Amino acid sequence: YWDCCKPSCSWAGKAPAFDAVHTCDRNDQWDWNNSIKNACEDGGEAYACTNTSPWVGPDDVSYGFAAVKLAGQGEWQTCCSCYELQFTTGPVAGKKMVVQAINTGSDLSDNHFDLVMPGGGVG
Asked: Is 3 one of the catalytic residues?
């Protein structure tokens, strides 16, 4: 998915981490103030950054980011956490991807990973 909105894990206090997920301004430059309003709300200026594109690392393992919703876990447990996924069907069957949760995906069903793909369409 790619909706350009500020990831939910960008707000202070969402995760037991050193810092929240960074956001960008309209020119894709990092904002260092995690209290800036979400650009998907009226008057907001904080966007998702395009540097969240997935990439392939050594040993043919892919890396990226995702919106994550796990049964029985809230933002505190999922925000900024990393997960190893294994694809089971299609041309990527048997391949692995490590993702970091940067969004909670409130519109997702339980146990769902929605991979971040900048440029893959808005919404």
From this structure: yes
Higher pLDDT, 60 or 115: 115
* Residue 121 covered by a domain: no
**Pair 52, 64: CB distance under 8 Å:** yes
Model pTM above 0.85: yes
In a domain, 120, yes or no: no
Report how many domains make up the chain. 1
Q: What is the Cβ-side half-sphere exposure of residue 39, based on CA atoms within 13 angstroms?
A: 17
Identified catalytic residue from 3, 28, 42, 60? 3
Return the CATH number at 75: 2.40.40.10
Catalytic residue among 19, 25, 59, 114: 114
Say if 50 falls within a structural domain.
Answer: yes
42 counts as catalytic = no
Q: Give the pLDDT score at 8.
A: 93
